[in-house]
Amino acid sequence: MRLCSPPVYSLVGVVTLLLPLWEVGCSGLSASPRLRPLRAPSGLEGALRRQKRSWVWNQFFVLEEYTGNDPLYVGKLHSDVDRGEGNVKYVLNGEGATSIFTIDENTGDIHATKRLDREEQAYYTLRAQAVDRATNRPVEPESEFIVKIQDINDNEPKFLDGPYTAGVPEMSPLGTSVVQVAATDADDPTYGNSARVVYSIIYGQPYFSVEPKSGIIRTALPNMDRETRDQYVLVIQAKDMVGQMGGLSGTTSVTVTLTDVNDNPPRFSRKSYQYTVPESQPVASVVARIKAADADVGSNAEMDYRIIDGDGLGMFKVSTDKDTQEGLITLQKPMDFETKTSYTLRLEATNRHIDPQFLSLGPFSDTATVRVMVEDVDEPPVFALLLSKMVVSEAAKVGTIIGTVSAHDPDASNSAIRYSIDRNTDLERFFNIDAMTGVISTAKPLDREVNAVHNITIFAMESQDPSQVGKGIAVITVMDINDNAPVFAIEYETVLCENAKPGQVIQTISAVDKDEPPSGHRFFFALSAEAAGNLNFTLRDNKDNTASILTKRVGFQRQEQSLYRLPILIVDSGSPSLSSTNTLSIQVCDCDPDGLAQSCSAEAYMLPAGLSTGALIAILACVVTLLVFVLLIVTMRRRKKEPLILEEERDVRENIVRYDDEGGGEEDTEAFDMVALRNLNVIRDHKARRDVTPEVTTFFSSRPAYKTLPDNVIFREFIWDRLKDADVDPSAPPYDSLQTYAFEGSGSVADSLSSLESLSTDSDQNYDYLSDWGPRFKKLADMYGNTEGCNIFS
């Protein structure tokens, strides 16, 4: 069997070896088979003929991207068994069989039915076999062959990593490498020049160049300046076929950024600057900002400022703002316009990071002159001493001069100063200050033991402008005098055992003194005069501000005396010395052999002379009963003294209503209760008005009981008493009130109650004094003051 790709070569009757495969098949592109027939040994020739295998294999080559309308002829299979009688059938299996490649089962012709792309698959492996058509049994063993797709230049170069970005330092020398680009071509690099790429620069000259074979981009000009232009966009082309005519090409962009180097020194925009600053500018505040321009960026533009000369070296300092690279001029000391009106500074700005290779471009520093003008402002008074220290004895009398503070107006106007004390710092007003002279004196007695140091704030105010206030501090220390006597250090509880021996120390005492003498305390102890000769105890001064109490005898018994009180005299060493007598209580107790108190109660021995617990309880119960009884009596007396018809009295006064028409006399009972007016005896007692506390209380002589008078006189007498109380009470306002009573109408036993008819009645009341009360009482004076006497009732 033979595989033919025209021209067809076959060797029959010998073993055929495929030494390498043909490069060209039946397409006719090449007819140079590389097969070499090998003859078998003579003894084997017959055997080889009997087992003849007559497949002849080689590679088939098929051009990719075939665009014809008919199937592309690939080659032909033929077996020696096939005599042309149609008994042999050819079968094709493997990659693409029946889908891409077909075979004519009668003739063995192979065709490609689809367009092939080498870049998708470069070759196909197929299996061919000849079978008997009748029995479908193989007449030849199955063997493989390869269909190789032959490449054409159908793919342009591509930059898989593009577009590119790169950076190169400015001022780089000529030929400095920037970046390398690479393009790939999908065509077969082993066949022709389809995949051989060369590079060229389309856009970006004359600044950059590219090496044709390697794709390395280099600078084409020296000393490119970032400050002039900092970015370039290049277009690089890659072309296959070694750049020849007809080759395919692809492009990419390369963005090249010039990175900064420190090639520019800082420069001030001007050689001199001037700033105006008020003299009240606080210390540590920024008074000016100045910046030297630097065309570089980042760390290359960082700079340091310093004052190199001028008369403001001690007044100002300069630092760099790390964010803005400005020079911050900061005030170091307070300014005073009256002392100095301007300052001059010479400032230098220097790059922090200097590149030695660019030193030839000049010094990387610059200088400028800064003039600071001090502006005059109205300043508050200034104390000669911000902190004045004074001392005063606690024995100083009120009005004693302690010291003087002084302040002045720093402005040219030199306004007069007034002084005062901030009372928030002298709440108890211990001190006064003379407003004009600033002399501080005591206003109250001082006590060092209560407050040893007074820290007060003094205000100094300009007379012409009170809003300008200066503050000073006066620290007044109160000096100690010996004005406190020594006393016991603690409240001693001294226990004396019944079995105490003579000369036994039963208590050690010490003393304290609120005073603080400069040389320290020294106390002297002794028994008081009345206790000096007692037979029970003695005192020993230990000469170390302590004293010991000792027994003088034995035989102390609780039943005889359970408590002793020993007066002790303590004297200090002050000048003059002070002393105090302190009483030490000594309790007699029953003690164990170790001297520990077991029982100090003397109750068992004092029962005959005292009271039992039951007796005390009985006495307490009696006291409680007595208190309850007293409270009950007081309560009953209060209830008895309360007016029984207090509300009726209030009703009587408040229900006298002014009528505009005549009522129905006694038959008109809606306005008030007539019974209330008839029960008047309970309120005959004079009472002061409840709306005020009268300064003078006048008691009138008693009058006959109302119930003994006729009915027509009852109301007249009652209202007369009310009116008289109101008229003669000078402490109860209003003094000019007008009492108005309405007419009850005909048939009333009270007749008319109108005060207008009082002018014609007899009265012992004199109203002439109303004329002396002024214009507010003129109307009352006109009504009552011109008559010799008037009675308001008819």
TrEMBL record:
Segments passing through the bilayer: 605-634
Membrane topology value: Single-pass type I membrane protein
Cited InterPro entries: Cadherin (IPR039808), Cadherin-like_dom (IPR002126), Cadherin-like_sf (IPR015919), Cadherin_CS (IPR020894), Cadherin_Y-type_LIR (IPR000233), Catenin-bd_sf (IPR027397)
Domain of life assignment: Eukaryota
Keyword set, alphabetical order: Calcium, Cell adhesion, Cell junction, Cell membrane, Glycoprotein, Membrane, Metal-binding, Repeat, Signal, Transmembrane, Transmembrane helix
Primary role: Cadherins are calcium-dependent cell adhesion proteins.
Subcellular location: Cell junction, Adherens junction; Cell membrane
Single biological process term from Gene Ontology: morphogenesis of an epithelium
UniProt protein name: Cadherin domain-containing protein
Cadherin domain mapped to chain residues: 79-159, 160-268, 269-383, 392-488, 488-605
Claim: Signal is one of the keywords in the record: yes
A single cellular component GO annotation: catenin complex
GO molecular function terms noted in the UniProt entry: beta-catenin binding; cadherin binding; calcium ion binding
SUPFAM superfamilies for this protein: Cadherin-like
Presence of the UniProt keyword Ribonucleoprotein in the record: no
Range of residues in the leader sequence: 1-26
